[in-house]
């Protein structure tokens, strides 16, 4: 977790519209994700989290600042920054297997190798036996497992996750969080994960950036230095609760400022 | 919320209802014609119409006319699909292309095809090309806009997912946008092929020496109402069959599609 700097966002800004109608969605956002690190961004809805991750993923364009991957600036979307979305966005005409193979097929990886690598990641997310199922036959949690496998199979440099468990019910969400924590321990991917759920942020993150809204910017960084395996039992441990309280206080302050300021 | 719970309608029942509607109309037709409510010149009897169809089948003109008409519809319509499909896809995905062609298409869409017939005759004469052109003009401008609309409604997130998985621009078209839009496109095609039949009759009524539209128009001159009815019946039947084939085809090319009304 003390790896090299992988992803770097520097003085990033995003303004929508022009002149009097201009809305500043992001202002002076700075953040760093080191290799194999699990970094969370937590913030209230409307703080520009999704805009931020879309710019990093190359799906939106900043109006100032830059995004560096391994020291090189990026702008267009690419396979080096894999994304997982809240809406799964699986391809409904492809089976789970073919969905997971998609990125590899785009890269023209030979069919046999493609199939084998896809199988490996399908097993990793616990979807073994569902290779030939179509997305519509899967539950929400299973769809998101497939989507995660699809992105991981592509072996991106950074995994960008935009509230991936936001649409799932509470129990499924915990199961998925543990699954992701397990994958993180086994495969050490570099992850930048966005959420508005404080529990989720504390449970998964090595480091948590707390964002403020209007204009969205980084308000604080918190290191979650709790060793050992993270699972649903962790949520009730005192050290977790302490971190959680700290974040809640920040976000509370934040909404008070917003309420009195505007 | 309605107070009464809706009872599911079985497949048998829907088929029965559809047949009943046809049955009622035919029954009324029988009453009106055999009962002499309406003069035979205006409404021929079902037997007279069927007799006409059998006669035409025997002398071969039935097949000849159907074949001519079907081939005109298909050729004109396929040209329209071949050009509208890529153009609609481009329009949906490029603001520039859209800005360039959309206004002229919207303009052309409002021109009644019948009003263009004199020009097509002037430019193209009474050759087959003129008939294809009428059908093309009648369907193309609508189809481009429908394709554009269908393609635009492809879930943006799916395209974004493909891009972040490393798909290039062309790959996104081929691997995502086209398959995702396919069920909707099949519906667009099914609708426009129906319109193509309308324009076929327009094309055959002005300058043709065969085809179902021509047959109907010529019959009017001789007050051969039975032949007019036979022609209408045939066009309707061909329409029903085409529609049914398209539905089968949609299922075959997009079996993954969840349809409203599909019961599982």
Write up this protein.
- The complex is a heterodimer of chains A (262) and B (264).
- Helices cover 37% and strands 24% of the residues of chain A.
- Chain A is α/β, with parallel strands linked by helices and 262 residues long.
- In chain A, α2 (96-106) packs parallel to α4 and α3 crosses α4.
- The longest helix of chain A has 24 residues, at 238-261.
- The mean pLDDT of chain A is 88.
- With 264 residues, chain B is an all-alpha fold.
- Chain B is built from 10 helices and no strands.
- Chain B starts with 10 loop residues before the first helix and ends in an 11-residue tail after the last helix.
- The chains are: A alpha/beta (262), B mainly alpha (264).
- Chains A and B meet through β6, α2 and α4 of A and α7 and α8 of B.
User: CATH topology of the largest domain in chain A, which one?
Assistant: Rossmann fold
* Main β-sheet description of chain A: 6 strands, mixed
Number of domains of chain A: 2
Mean pLDDT of chain A: 88
Which stretches of chain B are low in confidence, meaning pLDDT under 50 for 5 or more residues running? Answer: 260-264
